[in-house]
Amino acid sequence: MSRATKDQNLCISPLSVQTLLTYISTVSEGKLHDELSRLLDLPENQTLVAKTYQMLTQLPTENTDANNTIVFGNKLYFDERYGFLKRNVLDSAQRLYATDLESVDFLLPSKAADKINSWVSDKTRHLIENIVNADSLKSNTMALLVNSVYFKSEWENKFALYDTTMRPFFLNPRKEIQVETMYTEDLFRYGSFEQLGATVLEIPYKLDDFTMMIILPKDIDGLAEVERRLSEISLKLISYRLETREVIAKIPKFKIEFESDIIQTLQQLGLRSLFNRDSRINIFKHPSEPLAVDQMRHKTVINVNEAGTEAAATTFAKIVPLSIPVGLVRFTVDHPFIFVIRNSRAVYFMGHVVDF
């Protein structure tokens, strides 16, 4: 997907897509089930699949602070014109996958779209207002499965507002603009990776175990090559190799709204049966015809500023080593870069910034 969006800002939630596909795998059979299992590396045992899902969506122990919270949502909308849901779907939806169920009449597309968008807006604290419209809901729509991830957290140590100034940002080697850039000097986990062609800074959030990793290509026009190399290197390994250093960090404020149909991307990854007549999605007791997916849209919003990050996806103790490597590090984000919001279990949001 990054190749197709090389000239525009990108933000996706791998976790949102992964959890949606994991749930679909539990109500699929045959070739489709095999493709999903391979793509997601799922165990054959359905109980273990459910445990994998629950691990991915496990919330921090302290998740009640409105400024430091993460909220997941799953909802299956179905049209009873096509019959009743299978008993195992009803049983597992809420018990194992925290998925709400609601009957809607897709013959009334405007009313159905309003109901779906209202739920999404509520789950994402109004960051995402519209995920579907009446035109996208067809008269033969049988069901619609929606997944949402809302993330909001303050930085462990906020950037001071008075330190934010306009600084140069190079869109490419020949074009420079001025952007609002935050400034701080603190201890951060930092690393320089020759094999990646980038330097990396990890900024902790107050929300337990969450960080933003910023991957800055060493060359102004090096984003595409770094993204290519990043597909071959584990983010966990990169994080493991970071060291605590004293860093002067200059990082632009940014906000991204991104929406895309992800069917082509998933097909390129080997998931084809979900979108054709090989699909075997079984949610109704007596389906009149095979069920397949004809739309799969992904929409994200992320806002990064001095206070922290809000995205629609316990204090993080600062660990100071007994000895800190000598030398002040300067980390100036003044050209296109990659960002990753993650914890030790999963990647919640990631993308790149190429323009303002």
Structural notes for this entry:
- A hairpin with a 2-residue loop joins strand 5 (165-172) and strand 6.
- Helix 1 packs antiparallel against helix 2 (30-40) and helix 1 (14-26) packs antiparallel against helix 3 (46-56).
- 22% of the residues lie in helices and 33% in strands.
- The protein contains 8 helices and 15 strands.
- The strands form 2 sheets. Strands 1, 5, 6, 7, 8, 9, 13, 14 and 15 form a 9-stranded mixed beta sheet that branches. Strands 3-2-4-12-11-10 form a 6-stranded mixed beta sheet, sandwiched between helices.
- The protein has 2 domains: 10-153 and 255-302, Antithrombin, subunit I, domain 2 (Antithrombin, Chain I, domain 2, 2-Layer Sandwich); 154-254 and 304-353, Alpha-1-antitrypsin, domain 1 (Roll).
- The chain is elongated and about 70 Å long.
- With 356 residues, the protein is α+β, with helices and mostly antiparallel strands.
- Pfam families: Serpin.
- Residues 1-356 form the Serpin domain.
- This is Serpin (Serine protease inhibitor).
- Keywords: Protease inhibitor, Serine protease inhibitor.
- Belongs to the serpin family.
